[in-house]
Amino acid sequence: MKILGIETSCDETGIAIYDTEQGLLADALYSQVKLHAKYGGVVPELASRDHIRKISPLIKSVTQQANLGLSDLDGIAYTSGPGLIGALMVGASLGRSLAWGLNIPALAVHHMEGHLLAPMLEDNPPKFPFIALLVSGGHTLLVSVKAIGSYKILGESLDDAAGEAFDKTAKMLGLAYPGGPILAALAQKGDPDVYHFPRPMINRPGLDFSFSGLKTYALTTWQKSTQTDTDRANIARAFQDAIVDTLFLKCRRALKQTGHQRLVIAGGVGANSALREKLQQLNAEIFFPRLAFCTDNGAMIAYAGAMRLYAGQQEEAVIQTRPRWSLEDLVVPSCQKERG
Amino acid sequence: MKILAIDTATDACSAALLIDEQVHCEFALAPRQHTQLILAQIEKVLAEAGMSLQDMDAVAFGRGPGAFTGLRIAAGVTQGLSLAADIPALAVSSLAAMAQAAYHEYQIKKAYVGLDARMQQVYWGEYQIQAGIAVLQGKEQVIAPEDLPPKNSTGFVGVGSAWQVYADSLHPHIQAESHSTLQAIYPSAEYIARLAVKEYKSQQYLYSSEIQPVYLRNKVAQTLIERAKV
Ligand SMILES: Nc1ncnc2c1ncn2[C@@H]1O[C@H](COP(=O)(O)OP(=O)(O)OP(=O)(O)O)[C@@H](O)[C@H]1O
Ligand SMILES: [Mg+2]
Fold it and tell me: Do A48 and B36 count as a contact with CB atoms less than 8 A apart?
């Protein structure tokens, strides 16, 4: 089955085609980062306006890349939520009606299911069950994954998401937008022994996170410092070490608690090299998507939709957007289709 | 000529099928339910004529002005249908569709059409019927009602929600009659379809990313530099 994936939940338009026989056939992404940089953050209305300008040409370009016509598609998967309502609406409206017009099924995909299945697109995909650490701009989740659609949230952030904490701290340190990756690069130049930041919530039982205190800690440290470039790098380092350590400790705890032996890391912060390195110390098999598939992309949506459509999941011809939607509300695609 | 038309620019949601002179329309006043309704309405108008999308010559959409999200639903659905059936799209003004409705339903030939644009502004267009078609006089604009230049031409009638919401700011300087039935006129796919005939004949075909809303309100956020100046 050849499935077109459409991702428009935030500030990237991602389109891809996944084939259940041959794997990923084509993938294209348009990032709006430059557009929003002038505003210091994502402006939802501008994001929506840009999606509706970019989406159709990207669909044409992926079909060309894959050497296919639209009539060769067997289904369309679009991100239905969570995300920015106006942005989601663009992909959902176009995706659902394109499928309707082509007379093929469409599937409303959960954005975080897309993220957590992204490592499945790699050569050595994880087997079920596994623990997923989802660390992105809007989420910090530890999830026990038994099968596609069978998710139990073991822990989550009580305040800022990990990526959000990176971005906000970067902004406070006067770094350019989007701050997360810039702060991470700066941290590499910092001295790890100058500052030590607390590891929030590690002494409490459970698997929840809290990162907003770290941001404040970074700010006070910065204000008390001489505010040189070296101070900035050292603070970035201490901040990153605290986040990485905290994520590491909670992952270790989650693996122990569930007995699972595999850990999947996904979401934008999964691109962080210090985190990738540190997690290798865990006594478990570790799986990451390639860097480009840590952040938002169409491939992960095409994949998640393909798995469900392949299993025979069906939906009515209704454009579905769910800006708030818990992973735990998903179902295991049941009606297993016979392979012909 | 067969044209499928949709409109989701306001609280109204509609789909229509035009076959030569005949139009069949499905219309609902359904705030925030456009995503639930629009494909079902399209299915219904096509099914009633025993036709499919592939039989259409074009798909027309209400391109705005109106509620931003609604405009993008129409543009998104239209992009999808146009891609799927490989047919051109036709863009029609939602204000023109209201003027056309006022003409067909109440024989009004001169209309000041105003839609509530929130933020104390209106989407505004002045229309006159010429050869049975609502023709825009001047430009469509988004403007505070009190900032409209005074108008005292005779025979104009006020159409659309702006005349209800901003009656007090419009009446002092805009000479026009209006009553509640005219204020309750919404854009409808029926008139999007009728107006699209002219676009089709003059080959104003749109494809892919050319299928865009007309928002009129284009300044929606301040840049960091602009905020720093305040
Ligand atoms: N190398 C890095 N180190 C730390 N953070 C990073 C790095 N690269 C990206 N990020 C962060 O990842 C986030 C973006 O990730 P992603 O695109 O997955 O999030 P999102 O799609 O905005 O949020 P969500 O998926 O929760 O809706 C940003 O907060 C960004 O700062
Ligand atoms: Mg994301």
Answer: no
B39–A contact, CB cutoff 8 A: yes
Say what the pTM is: 0.96
Describe the strand order of the beta sheet including A75-81 as a list of residue ranges. A23-31, A12-19, A2-7, A75-81, A106-110
Hey, is the C-beta of B33 within 8 angstroms of any chain A C-beta?
Answer: no
Please give the backbone phi and psi of residue A268, each rounded to the nearest 5 degrees, phi first.
-55, -40
**Residue B146 included in any domain:** yes
Q: Residues with beta carbon inside 6 Å of ligand 1?
A: A 9-10, 83, 111, 136-139, 163-164, 166-167, 178, 180-181, 184, 267-269, 271-272, 295-296
**Which domain, by its residues, includes B101?**
95-183
Instruction: Give me the architecture of the A129-288 domain, per CATH.
Output: 2-Layer Sandwich (3.30)
Strand, helix or coil for residue B66:
coil
Same domain, B160 and B104: yes
Q: What is the C-alpha separation between A17 and A73, in angstroms, rounded?
A: 9
Q: List average pLDDT for each run of 10 residues in chain A, which is 340 residues long.
A: 98 98 98 96 97 98 98 98 98 98 98 98 97 97 98 98 97 93 98 97 94 96 97 98 98 98 97 97 97 97 98 96 97 63
Q: What is the Å distance from ligand 1's center to A33 Cα?
A: 12
Q: Is residue B218 part of a domain?
A: no
Do residue B55 and residue B86 come from a single domain?
Answer: yes
CATH number at residue B114: 3.30.420.40
A95: nearest CA in chain B? B80
CB proximity B47 to A under 8 Å: no
Q: Which residues of chain B have pLDDT under 50?
A: none
Q: CB–CB of A98 and B81 under 8 A?
A: yes
**Domain A2-117+294-329 is classified in which CATH homologous superfamily?**
ATPase, nucleotide binding domain (3.30.420.40)
- Inspect the interface and report whether the beta carbons of A317 and B35 lie closer than 8 Å: no
Among left, alpha and beta (phi > 0; psi -120 to 50; other), residue B18 is: beta
> Containing H/E element for A93?
helix A85-102
The interface pTM score, or ipTM, of the predicted complex is 0.97
Could you tell me the residue ranges of all domains in chain A? Answer: 2-117+294-329, 129-288
Probe residue for ligand 1, chosen from A173, A296, A297, A325 as the CB with the greatest number of ligand atoms within 8 Å: A296
> Cβ–Cβ contacts within 10 Å for residue A159, how many?
15
B49 within a domain of the structure (yes/no): yes
Same domain, B67 and B179: no
Does B217 reside within a domain? no
Q: Which of A136, A244, A275 to mutate to test the pocket of ligand 1 (most atoms within 8 A of CB)?
A: A136
Structure tokens at B202: 């003059």
Residue B69 and residue B134 in one domain: no
Structure confidence by residue, pLDDT tens digits, B36-82: 999 999 999 999 999 999 999 999 999 999 999 999 999 999 999 99
